[in-house]
User: Which sequence fits this backbone?
């Protein structure tokens, strides 16, 4: 850390010298990892640029239609760009997809039919998917209510896909097997691209008609390949996570085989209309610009996650993944052990925000979650988890999940403020 920056953080932000010294030591020990990440970032930046150029993106694509949105050139262009980047036949990229859960729901409900079986092969899905599948909640139009059955295959103790258990779970009714790439509220490493390729090969060898779906939230641009480069039939994610680059105001995407995307489009609007209609409400400029800078933004977020892991490892905390593990999402989990620690961490992240830094987050009963949840996110776009944020369910063993930062410097500052808050509350012995 340069002397001027060190002095500014100490004098203007009241960061304790032991915290700054810990960050300096952590940064020194991870700098070689950053060089590899920069190479991945550059590769993806040029891949995105090529997709823009090959699809002739120009100023006319930033305008917008009214009414039904017939022949919207911007909408069509952004969907071609996404299909190129993810190496798929088709894509849906829409501001009317409200979040990642919605994108995943459209995919599941668009493809699955009564009597089909869905298998999650990475253990329990993210909390908000439980009511979509029908694991909990009644009378809300879940897959279960529509006659879709569900099985869940747990990961092995070392966090890998259990192929023996998966093979036993597959039945003649199995229509789709879904893999959640990111950790969600689990204590495991994200599923790597190499593991995804191994999984798709296994599934297709078992039954080539089974649809391999990947929940790609938080995973975009972490590798030079995406799940659809290695055999996944369809992927889905949120534009206010990685691919929106912090500029997309809302939205989600689904990319994959053309026949599957067509089915999903009929669920998104209505049978017979599909993807031919739907306004983009003038959002194509920010959606495309955000996508263009996304590789660099994701790069900063991953570096911040590694720094977080290293700093808390040095303080004796369990972290997942470890600082030098291969990354396949931008999430860093830290096992703090107490609700007070989780709350202090999140309050530190909030205090590091450019927006609403004066707010003090507290746990609350958030819709879609089984336990009280605390969320810290002073973001330009509400709920944008590519921006600096942290959240946690208040349940043992009290794990906090840190992610995001539009720049590495801001992600780093989030780690600094989280440490400082713990230090101030005497929950961290850093001397």
Assistant:
């Amino acid at each position: 850390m340069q002397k001027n920056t060190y002095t500014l953080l100490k004098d203007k932000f009241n960061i304790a010298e032991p915290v700054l010294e810990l960050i300096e030591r952590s940064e020194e020990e991870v700098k070689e990892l950053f060089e590899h990440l920069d190479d991945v970032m550059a590769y993806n930046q040029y891949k995105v640029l090529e997709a823009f150029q090959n699809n002739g993106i120009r100023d006319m694509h930033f305008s917008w239609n009214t009414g039904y949105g017939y022949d919207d050139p911007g909408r069509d262009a952004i969907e071609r760009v996404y299909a190129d980047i993810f190496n798929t036949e088709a894509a849906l990229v829409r501001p009317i997809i409200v979040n990642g859960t919605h994108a995943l729901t459209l995919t599941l409900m668009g493809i699955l039919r009564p009597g089909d079986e869905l298998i999650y092969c990475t253990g329990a899905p993210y909390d908000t998917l439980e009511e979509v599948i029908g694991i909990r909640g009644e009378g809300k139009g879940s897959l279960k209510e529509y006659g879709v059955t569900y099985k869940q295959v747990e990961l092995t103790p070392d966090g890998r896909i259990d192929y023996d258990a998966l093979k036993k779970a597959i039945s003649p009714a199995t229509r789709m097997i879904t893999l959640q790439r990111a950790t969600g509220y689990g204590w495991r490493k994200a599923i790597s691209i190499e593991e995804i390729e191994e999984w798709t090969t296994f599934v297709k060898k078992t039954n080539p008609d089974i649809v391999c779906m990947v929940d790609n939230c938080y995973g975009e641009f972490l590798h030079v390949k995406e799940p659809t480069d290695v055999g996944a039939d369809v992927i889905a994610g949120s534009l206010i996570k990685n691919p929106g680059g912090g500029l997309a105001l809302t939205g989600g995407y689904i990319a994959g085989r053309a026949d599957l995307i067509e089915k999903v489009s009929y669920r998104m609007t209505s049978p017979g209309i599909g993807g031919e209609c739907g306004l983009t409400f003038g959002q194509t400029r920010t959606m495309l610009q955000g996508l263009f800078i996304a590789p660099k933004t994701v790069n900063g977020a991953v570096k911040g996650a590694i720094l977080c892991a290293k700093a808390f490892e040095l303080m004796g905390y369990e972290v997942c993944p470890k600082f030098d593990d291969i990354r396949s999402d931008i999430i860093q989990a830290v096992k703090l052990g107490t609700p007070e620690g989780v709350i202090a961490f999140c309050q530190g992240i909030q205090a590091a925000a450019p927006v609403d830094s004066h707010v003090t987050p507290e746990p609350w009963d958030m819709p879609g979650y089984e336990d009280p949840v605390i969320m810290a996110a002073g973001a330009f776009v509400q709920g944008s988890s590519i921006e600096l944020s942290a959240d946690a369910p208040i349940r043992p063993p009290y794990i906090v999940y840190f992610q995001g930062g539009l720049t590495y410097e801001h992600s780093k500052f989030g780690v600094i403020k989280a440490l400082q808050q713990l230090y101030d509350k005497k929950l961290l012995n850093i001397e």
User: Anything to note?
Assistant: The chain has a mean pLDDT of 95. The first strand starts at residue 90 and ends at 94. The radius of gyration is 21 Å.
